[in-house]
Structures are given as structure tokens and as C-alpha cells.
Design a protein that fits this description.
202 residues; Immunoglobulin-like; nine-stranded mixed sheet; four-stranded antiparallel sheet; rod-shaped; mainly beta; 2 domains; single chain
Length: 202
């Protein structure tokens, strides 16, 4: 925390997990035990605790000595990687295989850095005799930044809820996308995307 002095700072293994830690040495010259303090005069963070800038002064007492070692640390790190952002677009038209009853839908995926986007969703169509529903999941699109990446999935009749079959005409498509950020411990979602589409015979 900027502007804070941390006292009773010791080195491993004497320091407990919650204690401030301070170790300073050079080549083969290290303390067996040490105590001290350090002051954080400036610190700047990026995403997920990435340290961008750090200015610290410290004071260390080695092996019970009354003479302190004093020093300063000034660090400037590289610009942190961007956080992953993904998007999912849905095509306004889908295809219905008249023979098998399979439905094919698709869209585009976007990202600001390379990502493997896991896709899932459903197609639903309300009819007089009930509702036809087909679901898809565990589909993957390898997204690269620069231009929208097309994707499509085919839902076979075996993956549809029994009772009502799809017909040509208007249907509802819902799509979900998620991907792990390769630089940070985070999973990013593309949100709940819903669109009214038209199923045409193929």
C-alpha cells in the first residue's frame, strides 16, 4: 500500500505468511536471520495485481547487528498485457436439413488477443404443437484478433428434445461464449447473445 511503512519485516523461514518480508544480499553474502522495515513511497498496479511501478526504501539489521543496512528500490516494469475481451455475433439465418432434421447455425467471434472460445447455446422454435429445442455445447473456435472469425455448429436430431421437430421459418438462437485469459487467472464471458433467426431448408 502506497505511503505505508512495514515494520518487523523478517526473512524466510522466520516470517509467517501474514508478516512483511525483507531479504537483501549479494552473491554469497546473506543474513542467516534479519529484521528491518520498508516504506512504500509509490506503487502503481495493472490488472490482477500486476506491479507497474514501485519505489521503496528499506532498512535491514543482519544477524542481530545494531548497524543497519539501508537501500532503495526503484522499479519500472513493462506495460502489462491487455485483459482479454471477446465478442460473439449470431447470423440471422440458419439451415434446416429436410432429411435428417439437423439444424446448422453460426456467427462470428472477436477477440483482442488470441483465445480459444468455448461455445454453447440453443435453438428454439415455438409451434402450435409445442416447442422444438436443440442444444449445442463444447464447440470451440480459435479466435485471432484483427477480423471476425466465422463459426458454425450443426445440431443433429439426436441432440434435440423429443416431441417436436424444427420447421422452416422463424426461430430463436441463443449463444454463449467463454475463454480463459492466457495472461491472467481469469475466464471471460461474451455474454448472453440472443437473436431471432430464419431457418431455411437446405
Amino acid at each position: 500500500t502506497e505511503g505505508t511503512t512495514y515494520t518487523n519485516a523478517s526473512r524466510r523461514p522466520d516470517a509467517r505468511p501474514e508478516d512483511p518480508k525483507l531479504e537483501f544480499g549479494a552473491d554469497d553474502r546473506w543474513c542467516t536471520t534479519s529484521t528491518g522495515s520498508f516504506t512504500v513511497s509509490h506503487i502503481s498496479y495493472g490488472p490482477y495485481g500486476y506491479i507497474r511501478e514501485l519505489d521503496v526504501t528499506f532498512e535491514q539489521y543482519c544477524d542481530g547487528s545494531a548497524l543497519p543496512l539501508r537501500g532503495e528500490v526503484h522499479a519500472r516494469t513493462a506495460e502489462p498485457p491487455a485483459e482479454l475481451a471477446i465478442g460473439l455475433g449470431l447470423n440471422p439465418e440458419g439451415r434446416l436439413d429436410a432429411k435428417s432434421g439437423a439444424v446448422t447455425v453460426g456467427g462470428t467471434a472477436t477477440c483482442n488477443k488470441p483465445a480459444r472460445i468455448a461455445l454453447s447455446g440453443l435453438v428454439a422454435q415455438t409451434q402450435k404443437t409445442g416447442e422444438a429445442v436443440g442444444r449445442y455445447e463444447d464447440e470451440v473456435v480459435d479466435c485471432v484478433p484483427g477480423a471476425p472469425v466465422p463459426w458454425s455448429v450443426t445440431i443433429p436430431a439426436t441432440a434435440m428434445e423429443p416431441g417436436v421437430s424444427f420447421r422452416t421459418g422463424t426461430a430463436l438462437l441463443r449463444g454463449f461464449g467463454k475463454a480463459d485469459d492466457r495472461d491472467y487467472p481469469a475466464t471471460v464471458n461474451a455474454g448472453d447473445n440472443t437473436a431471432q433467426i430464419t431457418l431455411v431448408k437446405s
